[in-house]
Amino acid sequence: MKNLEGLNALWETARSVLPISAFLILFQVLVLRKPIENAKNFVLGFLLSVFGLHFFLKGVSMSLIPLGNSVGKNLIDLKYKWSIVVFSFILGYFATLVEPALKALALEVEEISVGAIPHTTLIHAVAIGFGGGMAIGMFKILNSIPNTKIILPILLVILVLTYLAPDEFVAIAMDSASSTTGPVNIPLNMAVAIGLSTIVENADPLLNGFGIIGLTSLGAVVSVLVLGILTKF
Questions:
Q1: Does one domain contain both 9 and 77?
Q2: How far apart are CA 177 and CA 183, in angstroms?
């Protein structure tokens, strides 16, 4: 029975990868009329991606999500609220450093800018912004602050920074925010936030636990725009 369940889970993962692969193959062969280069490597890579994604999702559900949820529920044991906020910043910062999508984006930016924007500088700038957004989100949960009172001021700050920052950094900031919502940050940080919101008195997990990833993305936008402004000097 367990073997059958495992095969079903693997098939579900394969079903999520098959449509996009089939679409690209058909478009390449039928519309662009170009052959698939190195078909053997493509098939091997497809199989590796299916198995890799399957094992990663299984590992996340068995480790990061329950651990993050447990940590979130026990954060309330800390004596001072500011220590929870500091912890959230550190968690968000280091979790962002391992995001593969962010690393890929940073390397592309470094290549296109001919080294003017080093990939390590961009990665750390995004991590700082993500950590700051995570800290703000946890502060919101601890004090039951409505989302609008947090989001609107941040959006106003982003509008001002967008006007002041170089145009290329505005575009990079938007993509940097998206690249942080990857396979590490979402399950881990959301689990911590929901875990905390289930313990905090008068906090509704549905209202306060969710939205944390959006705040972290806004924080990443702010930090990259600030980095762009600093490059002027």
A1: no
A2: 14
